[in-house]
Amino acid sequence: MNEVKSALEIAAVDDSKFVLLSVVGSVFCCGLDFDIIVKHLKYNRKRASVKLEDTIKNFVNFFIVFMKPVIVSVKGPAIGLGASILPLCDVVWANEKAWFQTPYTRFGQSPDGCSTITFPKIMGRAAANEMLINGWKMNAQEACDKGLVSQVFWSETFTQEVMVRIQITSCNSCVLENSKALVCYNMNVELKQANERECEVLKKIWASAQGMEYMLKYVQNKIDAF
């Protein structure tokens, strides 16, 4: 998260007109690494939970306030924060084999990435609850139908399709930034407040004995399955 944030900080002040967020490999993002989180929480739960909360809050807030358009190219699974961050971006293109899931309750976690606000607004409350509470695994076409994804392309030609459609390079950067600012004007305060609430709840979960126990159980189940 800190590395992505640092890259965005550089992009915010250089002469680029937009950011293309993609990955090398077949997985877009698996979300938070609970193995690492558990290791941090083992020694000083209260201090570590505050640090983790600040990291996630700052990461998400940077997407909220970032002025240049962010185009996302999703070539594979987007899980947890990897999926919840997508509505904070401006255009999301997906490979037909991509899928999206926010199985927070299975991890003993609560939603993040402002998804408690963005998911109901985008896909409706019922579908949002299926994602955030029941952990619905949504394929690329379903994600497009629900508004989480802008367009879906064939796997074989995905990269070419993305590059062909990046037409905003010829636009005036001032026009791009002002257009995005107008679209986001009425949402940013609400998003920041949602991010604050979500991170506060996560901090409480991480600082609790019950939350730690649930995460340890999840990590242990992963090890046993492996």
Automatic annotation (TrEMBL):
Family matches, as InterPro entries: ClpP/crotonase-like_dom_sf, ECH/Chromodomain_protein, Enoyl-CoA_hydra/iso, Enoyl-CoA_hydra_C
Gene3D superfamilies registered for this protein in UniProt: 2-enoyl-CoA Hydratase, Chain A, domain 1, Lyase 2-enoyl-coa Hydratase, Chain A, domain 2
Record keywords, A-Z: Membrane, Transmembrane, Transmembrane helix
SUPFAM superfamilies linked: ClpP/crotonase (SSF52096)
Chain ranges passing through the membrane: 18-38
CDD domains, sorted: crotonase-like
Protein name: Uncharacterized protein
Organism: Saguinus oedipus
